[in-house]
Amino acid sequence: MNYQHLFSVGKIGSVTLKNRVVMPAMGTGLASSDGELTEQQIRYYEERAKGGTGLIITEFTTVDFELGRAAANQLRFDDDLFIPGFRRLADAVHTYGARVFVQLHHAGRESSSYLTGGKQIVAPSPVTCEAIGEEPRELSTSEVKDIIGKFVEGAARCQAAGIDGVELHGAHGYLINQFLSPNTNLRKDEYGGSFEKRMRFVEEIIQGIKQQCGADYPVTVRLSVDEFEEGGMDLSLSRKVSRYLEKIGVDGIHASSGNYNTMEKVIESPLFEEGWRVYLAEEIKKEVNIPVFAVGNIRDPQFVESILAAGRADFVAIGRGHIADPDWVRKVADGREKEIRMCISCLHCVYTKGHIECSVNVRAGREIEFLEMKKINEKRHVVIVGGGPGGMEAARVLAIRGFDVTLIEKNGKLGGQLNLVTDPVYKKKMTRYVRYLINEMDRLKIDIRLNSEASVGLIKLMNPDVVLLATGGTPRVPAFEGLELPHVSNYRDVKVENSIFTGQKIAVIGGGMVCHSTSRRLSEQGNDVTLIEILTESARKISPQTRMKLMEKLKTVGIQVITGHSVSEITAEGVILKEDKTGETKAIEVDQIVIAMGVQAYNPLEQYLREIMKNVYVIGDAAGNTSLADATREGFELACALG
């Protein structure tokens, strides 16, 4: 495909970009504890620049480390001491022809006393953010002017460090957003009340930057065009705000959405359609003549081209897609779209503790640790048993390093547990990832043996140097009384064996993605379904946004959900539940019971192989690690470590 719009030159103010792809600001947790840029952080951004991105916008960078942080290990630029680090960042990005903006930020009420050293958080008005739960202190007029000065000073430092421009974080419920929104700005002074007064805070920041840095120094604003909260910023108000921003000299608008109370509209779960937010950019573009960025759950290069070709936006921001594959742009330019490792929106990058991680790209946040794939000096043969994500990731890396790899899969297709995803939106994303892995197996000419049952004898005949067992798991079935009854089955019977129930009352017991998708499938078959949610290990790994979206989908199709209970017994008539808090029991009458409580390790070969071989390794579900991130990480790390 000819991506003439994607690879056309663009301009933001005085800065020229080589293409229309932007990597937007995303927190990494890679800064030092005092907010300083680290070499790992610079390397992380450098790799995305090397991958062909036109513009990189750093993660949110506070202008007030004392009261303005929203996260631990957040970048700061509130002192000249940090200029050298940002100079190194600018030099690294510029080496590859990319440009870099710094996103200047103040959290306002979307902080916590934990981050402020016990001091009360601050805001335009003492309006509590429900998601935070701490009442903020109203900033005095002099404090407001002081913070304006800090934004201006931050921009001046950016310019001194060779940074190409700045983005003001006026979205997601942070301080600038708080001044703009009628919900959070109840002030009676010159910074609150009328529309013009609510605009004054950001207006004076922009004017100050232009005076300090020059009128041609680019300033863009990230705006929550719709906060999806009654009384807050919405499309109608944002049209007016955008026109005003253009009038006072802003060079571009980054059309985002949501705040901490509507976080699912800030960082989407896997159940959101690709590019669902593009309409916000499209509407703002109708109001202004400055560049507008579309952002939000955008993955596919053909979709990016269509956005630009239709004039819906001037630039397209690909966020988590750049975490999953830093070479996204370069692969598109080279016609290697099948080699793009697309983000699956699983939110692992958001909810990991510590620095950023990615469930499909182990190197994210660890680029210095894995600078190159070391080639082996002599051929060695590795047999991998299991064609799930862990096994295929190990095969991919081993083949790149020069190993001779044979992968044995007992089923007729690769993908393992990933093939069990049935939600239409999520399945599309997961199918892309499975296709990527399968394409890598073909591209690297890995010997794939489908419909083959691995045995000790077969493996012995192959005479491998190393055996890697990625045999996955089987449905986990707790020791409920009554499991032997004929009306009890498990999720594989529904999703793999395609057992069909119609017009029956069914109870699904469990938690996690597989539990929810099993419930929906049964409902779609015309059954009356009740989900008895029991928190499992896999269920606890689901993000709050995803769980909320899953619950909405269940309610939409009429599935009743019971929480706060445990299973006491399965009977011929149904299931007896015990209330967690009171211990009271109640009986649920159903025709069928389906257990969907995740997986347990399936590893029948290890013991026997270890008796005849030295180099036997186990990864993923087979090792008792139940997440995609675990399987991918273990496959990657083991493949890198083998000598």
Written overview of the protein:
- With 643 residues, the protein is α/β, with parallel strands linked by helices.
- It has 3 domains: 342 residues, Aldolase class I (TIM Barrel), CATH 3.20.20.70; 131 residues, Rossmann fold (3-Layer(aba) Sandwich), CATH 3.40.50.720; 126 residues, FAD/NAD(P)-binding domain, CATH 3.50.50.
- Helix content is 32%, strand content 19%.
- It is built from 19 helices and 29 strands.
- The strands form 7 sheets. Strands 3-4-7-10-11-12-13-14 form an 8-stranded parallel β-barrel, surrounded by 7 helices.
- A hairpin with a 5-residue loop joins strand 25 and strand 26.
- Helix 12 packs parallel to helix 19.
- The longest helix is centred in the first third of the chain and has 20 residues.
Task: Give the terminus-to-terminus CA distance.
Answer: 41 Å
Taking all Cα atoms into account, the compactness measure Rg is 27 Å
Q: Which range does the strand content fall in?
A: 15-25%
- CATH topology category name of the largest domain: TIM Barrel
Helix content: 25-40%
Number of helical elements: 19
User: How many domain units?
Assistant: 3
Kindly list the characteristics that best describe this protein.
643 residues, alpha/beta, FAD/NAD(P)-binding domain, 3 domains, 5-stranded parallel beta sheet, 19 helices, globular
In short:
This protein is α/β, with parallel strands linked by helices. It folds into three domains: about 10-350, Aldolase class I (TIM Barrel, Alpha-Beta Barrel); about 380-470 and about 605-640, 3-Layer(aba) Sandwich (Rossmann fold), CATH 3.40.50; about 475-600, FAD/NAD(P)-binding domain, CATH 3.50.50.60. The two termini are about 40 Å apart.
